[in-house]
Specification:
With about 200 residues, the chain is an alpha+beta fold. The protein has two domains: about 80 residues, no CATH class; about 100 residues, no CATH class. The chain has an eight-stranded antiparallel sheet with strand order 1-2-3-4-8-7-6-5. A hairpin with a 6-residue loop joins strand 1 and strand 2. The longest helix is centred in the middle third of the chain and has 18 residues. It is globular, with a radius of gyration of 17 Å. The chain starts with about 40 loop residues before the first helix and ends with a helix. The N terminus is likely disordered.
């Protein structure tokens, strides 16, 4: 039985369950790594996501990162716990197998609360992934060349993928110019997509 990655809007928390070492044992908005997106949307709806302006294609089009939180027609709203949700799929895959899932919550000018909730999630997931390798990475955000935006991330690596829990503290300038918010993002990533991100995505 798949275990639910439970994140509440007001009080982030993991549902404490038995030990798990499989990235597919968790869900974000009811979806899991390895599921077909066709189990949640029609082929026509998926094509609308792919063709939407918010979809992000990598240079070689091997993967596309799409958002699934649109509320206006003809999009179906499935987001329940997050402000935004999204998946990574291969646009050439007729089954639209999910290789990555993410959920994002915004913290408007409130990075302190973001970090508090992040720490709650990290503590809970530490007790769930019994044989995972943990890595913490606090650094300047690579997008902001002024080094005024920060990224606070924790990764848990298991045999077939990893999960990341990241708080992003955008600079005041980017918040004003881009309309961005500080945010907490939880991602599930399988090995294939993770390798792609590390070796091909930005080259």
């Amino acid at each position: 039985m798949k275990r639910l990655l439970l994140i509440l809007i007001l009080t982030f928390s993991f549902q404490t369950l038995s030990k798990a070492d499989d990235i597919r044992d968790f869900q974000i908005e009811g979806m899991s790594i390895g599921d077909s997106l066709l189990d949640f949307f029609t082929k026509e709806e998926i094509q609308l996501f792919i063709n939407h302006k918010e979809a992000f294609f990598y240079k070689n089009n091997e993967f596309v990162l799409i958002t699934t939180h649109h509320t206006r027609k003809p999009y179906k709203k499935i987001t329940g716990k997050y402000d935004f949700s999204g998946v990574a799929i291969k646009p050439s895959d007729n089954q639209y197998i999910i290789h990555s899932l993410r959920g994002t919550l915004r913290f408007k000018k409130n990075i302190d609360n973001c970090l508090i909730e992040k720490n709650k999630i990290v503590k809970s997931i530490s007790s769930i992934f019994s044989n995972s390798k943990r890595k913490d990475s606090d650094k300047n955000h690579t997008y902001d060349k002024t080094d005024n935006s920060k990224s606070y991330a924790t990764y848990f690596y298991v045999e077939n993928g990893y999960t990341s829990i990241t708080c992003t503290d955008w600079s005041n300038k980017l918040e004003t110019e881009k309309g961005w918010y500080d945010n907490l993002k939880v991602s599930l990533i399988d090995n294939e997509y993770g390798k792609f991100l590390n070796t091909k995505a930005y080259k």
